[in-house]
Amino acid sequence: MLYSLDAGIVAGLLAAVQSLHPTPSAHIALSVAFLATIVLYLSGELFGIYRSSHGRSADIEVLLITASWSVAWVGALFLGGRFGLIASFINPNLLLWFLLCGLTLLLNHMGLRACFEWLTESGLGARRAAVLGNNAVGLHVARDMIHDRDGGMRLVGVFADETSDSAVLAQDDDRLYAGNFEELLQQIHKRRVNTVLIALPMHAESRIQRALDALADTTASVYLVPNFSTYESLYSRWAQVGGHTVISVFETPIYGVDGLMKRVIDVVLSLIGLLLAAPIMLICALLIRVTSPGPIFFLQRRYGLDGKEFLVWKFRTMMTCDNGPVVRQAIKNDPRVTSIGKILRRTSLDELPQLFNVLAGTMSLVGPRPYATAHNEQFRTLIRGYMLRHKVKPGITGLAQVLGSRLETDTVEKMVARIQLDHRYIRDWSLWLDVKILLKTIRVVLRQDAH
Description:
By secondary structure, the protein is an alpha/beta fold. It is 51% helix and 12% strand.
């Protein structure tokens, strides 16, 4: 519905604005509106304005909608200029169209969001849902349902199946606990519940089957919630394999159109970065050459996407260039670090040559930081799920770096904390998250918080 409404707003307001100064013909205005709509759909998918706003505040939603329309307007002007369509427009008309359309799109999206939230909270049009599963997963689902104000479901409560201990959840949050399975069936028959989410453990097949047999004698919609609490789930999603429906446990969200757009952004920004940083990189290279013996660049073998080895480029900051089976991590006040190296590491200028890695496709601007292969082999045996961080390309910066986890990992506990942030990045990945990490990286570097 949003797609249709947005298309109508874009075309209708352009026609209205052009009626003030009807310079171009109707088919030219329609062509420009069509271009703007196509770019709006693409930018809207990029910024996520056509997906659920669950977890996003209203101000962030306004920012994303504004950014999507701004990209669409600029894209329409660019493409219209290439096709010779914009020349016949009066410039004030285009600016007025931008302002009016942007405001109307905001009202449209935010109005629908508020409407869905009100309908859900009031119970009108919302499905009355119950969670069957008196366990941690059931409680988690219930709480997420409460916070998902535009999800279209209103939680009735969490019910225990016949073998659950009803006191477990009651001690945690007695407001969510609503009774046992027999009471759930009564609520369904009284039409107080029309949707049931079964969140029982996967190994409890007999319990799930008994619940399904009983619920089959009702008119309630029933969903199974995959209980992967015993696994290190990484971006779970439905898929089809040989006609069978499966759920991925270890997967990457960066594929298809999203993956292509991330790659385009990497190439464009790395080219711009190399052009802007060329004078700085030249100065760094000269300082390294004249202040200490050895090569300017330090190339080290590291693991990339799917565990493939590649050579990462950095400015040399130490007297040594460890690249073997044993690599000693840099520590605070490390005597191996050169005088220029201290400055380069503190300002993160030693990372600039990795833009060549991004351009070559072995790295991304944003992703889990790559470690030396020696460290990988060490930690993969000590940390469960360590290698899952290689489900995406490594990055120059990442979530761990902007959240303060940049210091040396001299203990397994510190490395575990960093790996958890890497997994969080993969699970929550979006292009908007990449943008936020890049902006935060600039702030970290300017504040000289790199080490």
